[in-house]
Amino acid sequence: xxxxxxxxxxxxxxxxxxxxxxxxxxxxxxxxxxxxxxxxxxxxxxxxxxxxxxxxxxxxxxxxxxxxxxxxxxxxxxxxxxxxxxxxxxxxxxxxxxxxxxxxxxxxxxxxxxxxxxxxxxxxxxxxxxxxxxxxxxxxxxxxxxxxxxxxxxxxxxxxxxxxxxxxxxxxxxxxxxxxxxxxxxxxxxxxxxxxxxxxxxxxxxxxxxxxxxxxxxxxxxxxxxxxxxxxxxxxxxxxxxxxxxxxxxxxxxxxxxxxxxxxxxxxxxxxxxxxxxxxxxxxxxxxxxxxxxxxxxxxxxxxxxxxxxxxxxxxxxxxxxxxxxxxxxxxxxxxxxxxxxxxxxxxxxxxxxxxxxxxxxxxxxxxxxxxxxxxxxxxxxxxxxxxxxxxxxxxxxxxxxxxxxxxxxxxxxxxxxxxxxxxxxxxxxxxxxxxxxxxxxxxxxxxxxxxxxxxxxxxxxxxxxxxxxxxxxxxxxxxxxxxxxxxxxxxxxxxxxxxxxxxxxxxxxxxxxxxxxxxxxxxxxxxxxxxxxxxxxxxxxxxxxxxxxxxxxxxxxxxxxxxxxxxxxxxxxxxxxxxxxxxxxxxxxxxxxxxxxxxxxxxxxxxxxxxxxxxxxxxxxxxxxxxxxxxxxxxxxxxxxxxxxxxxxxxxxxxxxxxxxxxxxxxxxxxxxxxxxxxxxxxxxxxxxxxxxxxxxxxxxxxxxxxxxxxxxxxxxxxxxxxxxxxxxxxxxxxxxxxxxxxxxxxxxxxxxxxxxxxxxxxxxxxxxxxxxxxxxxxxxxxxxxxxxxxxxxxxxxxxxxxxxxxxxxxxxxxxxxxxxxxxxxxxxxxxxx
Amino acid sequence: xxxxxxxxxxxxxxxxxxxxxxxxxxxxxxxxxxxxxxxxxxxxxxxxxxxxxxxxxxxxxxxxxxxxxxxxxxxxxxxxxxxxxxxxxxxxxxxxxxxxxxxx
Lengths: 835, 104
Fold this sequence. Notes:
The complex is a heterodimer. Chain A is of the alpha+beta class. Chain A folds into four domains: 20-150, 2-Layer Sandwich (Beta-Lactamase); 186-380, Nucleotidyltransferases  domain 2 (Four Helix Bundle (Hemerythrin (Met), subunit A)), CATH 1.20.120.330; 431-646, PPM-type phosphatase domain (Phosphatase 2c, domain 1, 4-Layer Sandwich), CATH 3.60.40.10; 665-833, Histidine kinase-like ATPase, C-terminal domain (Heat Shock Protein 90), CATH 3.30.565.10. Chain B is of the alpha/beta class. Chain B is globular, with a radius of gyration of 12 Å. The A-B interface holds A 46, 49-50, 464-467, 509-513, 515, 533-536, 553-557, 560-561, 587, 591, 637 and B 22, 26, 30, 33, 55-57, 59-61, 63-64, 66-67, 90-94, 96-97.
């Protein structure tokens, strides 16, 4: 048995009202333990998971307890007992432990254990028993966790006997009683019958003897009478003869009777001596008489008086004897009666005794049976108490869980609210971008936002954080603010990507990167620029459904590479004069699984659908197909989809918004900003955001800011591109023209040795109205501005004019009330009236 | 998801099978903790030929492993990725920071 040492005498407190929960697999290795378990045991989750269950066993525990535990749970029965466990630091704690098998399809797949703080009483009771067992003082008997008290075999059998066996015992007993009494009665009946027959015979014999004795008595009387009368008939010989004969007959009869009486008396067991004597005497009498008679024939003298007296006394003696016999018989009869009566009583008493014993035995067995029936109810009653307690505890747990869930729901709600506020699309973008967002849970880990730069370039960010729900949304939220900020300032998406990468890298843990794609749509230049790190390729489709371009993921997602390794390099595409649609989506769309577990396969489906459906219906058709695919099932991952309509037709250049004015520009001494940028600054400085900042500080209303920004950036870019870098607009034409232009621009800027651009912004008055002048001078070679102005005046060739000199200047012209060139074309002043 | 680990000649190979997603978070961590602490191990291979599904959480877990391995001066290789895995790794351009190898 495993010995976990060292141990100490310290008790580790177990929190009241909490449960220590652990799960093991079939071999007893721990597969799960809850927080309470971990805290009480003192071990870490890593130490506990996978460890055998006897890891926390205290050496004081007798091994019989665990043998019984395994025996019980292997039989798929619950076990409940007291266990002492050891903490990591050697201290101990007692638990009332309930272990149940975990069943799946009626087969055990593991075991779950619930441990409650053991009460002081329980501990005191059990600790002693365990110790005695360990020390060998007594053998521990334990069954399903309960200690079985010491009893002998019979007691144990009796208390443990099932209801069935008790019932059987009762039935057997009743049968035995039945058989015994039946048998007994049968035996008694025949014996009694015999006895009564005997009694009847004896009584009748006694009576017969009595009657015989009486008869002899009477006969003797007759005999005596005859003898007495004999002398009377001495003269009459014939009559004398007659009487002699009578006497002979009588005396024979008496002799016979005496013989019979003798034998009868012998049969009833009375001594026959008096009779034998009587018989002899009678014979003597008869012989004497015959002698006398014979002697008398010779003489007519009859019996003499002495013979007569002899005869008479003989008769008297006989009579006494017979009377004695009579008395004796009567006495015997009386005795016999008494005997019979006493036998009858004792028989009754015996029956009553037997009945009483049988009744007592029967009643006790019945009682034993009833106890057996009631036993499960009693035990259930005891278990019922614990069951109620358990249910109470589980109810409390459920309530706790509900509380957690409510809090979580509240957090999600708040998070959702914040998210929706932050990711709200600017209203002016809405018709152009159509979005479909379907989070997997309440909060999405995807964001899809768009904003316009001051130059009215559309920036779109689609970001997909690892996972979904609250933890993912938290990662992605800070990106919104940054994106809006930088876009508003006019930063290019390369810079935005770099900044977002740093943001994620700095603030999120290593496993929480953000896949993202940044898109820039410049409708003026008809260029779409994309940075894609980990998102499925955004696709550009023509009106007739051809795929014009797809921007595959070229970069690692945000938050992985450090500043040095990160590249914000974008991929460009020039869409020329085609009206087109840009379709972008997160991987939740392509992975969307139908209930039959089929993936949606975004790219192919979209390409097919775009080929089939006309542009205005494509969005709705795609959404419909997606929802049909999901069949109402929730999405596994957050789904985000957007289709951007890109019209090649620009907003009509406003006709002169602000007609040229001849009014005098008056300096008003309000404020003036002047910046001068040399070659060095021009190379590294993000000039556009700088300019934005400058503009934003001007105290004019917001609506004028964008106009001012447009004017300033256009004049500046012209000064840099055409003036200093000497790039020709015509390079932009043709396939890859834009790419070449940008490459050339980058190269020349890098190589720039000398150059200078001076910017001056001043608050002025024009005809009493508030206005701003912007004056840009570059150190370049200038251009033929006269020719341009002449060409611009010619309305019929406006289109060519625009193409040649750039839309930008045309726009500036339409916004300003004055646009004057000076020098060799490297000096330009614009005046904007804030109306 | 069944994860098995084999250590041989200083290379710990963690073989993943089935779905590699958020559910295996703990198991995966337990699997690489020991090889990271083991001084004899120089390289940790994550073998994924039997992985049929890989999502962004799995990529996150690989990122964590990558970071920890770097701190422990060990290298990480993604070995024999199944098609499902290859697609995801490609879109995320993980080849730029992980060694991706095929042995068969």
